[in-house]
Amino acid sequence: MSEAIARAHPNVALSKYWGKLPSPGNVPAVPSLSITLEGLSTVTRVRFDASRADDRVVIGGRDADAAARARVVALLDRVRLASGESRRAEVVSRNDFPTASGLASSASGFAALALAAVRAAGLDWDASRVSDLARRSSASAARSVFAGYVELPAGAPGASEASLLPARALAGVDHMPLVVLVAVATDEAKAVGSSEGMRETLERSPYAAAWLDEAPRLHARLREALAARDFRLVGELAESSALAMHASAIAAGIVYWTGATIETLATVRKLRRDHGFGAYASIDAGPHVKVLTRPADAAGVRAALEAASGVRRVIEARPGHGARLVTVEDAP
Ligand code: PMV
User: Fold this and answer.
1) What is the torsion angle, in degrees rounded to the nearest 10, for the CA atoms of residue 74, residue 77, residue 81 and residue 86?
2) What is the CATH number that goes with domain 179-319?
3) Model-level pTM?
């Protein structure tokens, strides 16, 4: 038997990835920039075992459904092809936060899986190769392989499926002190996955072209604001990116927001306007609002979010580590 265990964190994109190139290989059409978040994590164990007749995938203590299992098996197949490993595997994964509800479980999940599978198969790949592998399953997962502030470039139209497209670290965890408060709106899985939401947006939204045009500009400005450690501008641009992404999706009928999302967004804007807090909202493919704030403002912002209608609880996260191997004590 050969096994490895890896831990990875989700990330929140400040400039959002939303939309794939038409070519195969899960290639993003726009660049994105994220913060890897300590405070939420996935631990995944991969064991190749000659006695297994088939791959087994257990997520959160239960056998994964057919769709989730197929995505995991596709990654294992890539690793088997690259390494010559022919045995089937058992994959056991656990999140300490709700799975598939828009809290980026696919990012931490595929980052941890990619690292554990590569090492269990004996491949000596560096973080870039692991990131490229994770990207093929979930583009946001490519970013969770790295610590701190991370960029995933857009793919080049027409590039071959074999071309590597990894994320890259832009700045370390201490580059700009901030806190991300996740206002959890539900513990249920979302109805429309991000791949389907993106596809519908590009196919049907009257604003798809506007989004594809605007996203790289927002991204370039965000990179500059981050390099200048301009918290306020980073926050403003991150909120703009999230709202532009959702506006394009909503126009295609893809609505991830619930009442709690609107209430939380209104709370964040009131905190800025009436109380002078530096607080900025980001929203992914789910109803939760992720609020960027400075450490000094975190307690006040947290209290206001906890009081917002529909918010179940608030999770506090900070810039954190990339995917890493862990010991057997962490095994799920
Ligand atoms: O990587 P996926 O397929 O889980 O899509 C991620 C999409 C967003 O979370 C909404 C945006 C992003 O850049 O993380």
Assistant:
1) 180
2) 3.30.70.890
3) 0.96
The four Cα atoms 217, 223, 226, 228 give a dihedral, to 10 degrees, of -90
CATH 3.30.750.24 at 2-172, yes or no: no
Which region among 102-106, 216-220, 252-256, 295-299 has the lowest average model confidence (pLDDT)?
102-106
Would you say the CATH fold of 179-319 matches that of 2-172?
no
Using CB atoms within 10 A of its CB, is residue 173 exposed (0-12), middle (13-18) or buried (19+)?
middle
Closest ligand 1 atom to Cα of 11: 14
CA angle (162, 166, 171) in 5-degree steps? 170
Residue nearest to atom 3 of ligand 1 (CA): 138
* Structure tokens belonging to residue 176: 């700009």
Q: Is the dihedral of CA 292, 182, 145, 78 positive or negative?
A: negative
**SS3 of 82, please?**
helix
Query: pLDDT tens digits for 222-251?
Result: 999 999 999 999 999 999 999 999 999 999
pLDDT tens-digit profile of 156-178?
A: 999 999 999 999 999 999 999 99
Phi, then psi, of 147 in degrees rounded to 5: -85, 160
Q: How confident is the model at residue 330 (pLDDT cuts 50, 70, 90)?
A: confident
222 vs 239: CA distance, rounded Å: 11
Question: Residue 136 region, left (φ>0) first, then alpha (ψ -120 to 50), else beta?
Answer: alpha
**Dist CA 13 CA 19 (whole Å):** 14
Q: What is the pLDDT of residue 104?
A: 62
Give the Cα separation of 219 and 29 in Å (integer).
Answer: 13
Other Cβ atoms less than 10 A from the Cβ of 321: the count is 17
Ligand 1 is surrounded, with C-beta below 6 A, by 13, 16-18, 32, 104, 106, 138-140, 194-195, 284-285
Q: What is the mean pLDDT of the chain?
A: 95
Listed by start position, the domains of the chain span 2-172, 179-319
Q: For residue 53, count CB atoms less than 10 angstroms from its CB and return exposed for 0-12, middle for 13-18, buried for 19 or more.
A: exposed
Q: Which atom of ligand 1 is nearest to the CA of 141?
A: 1
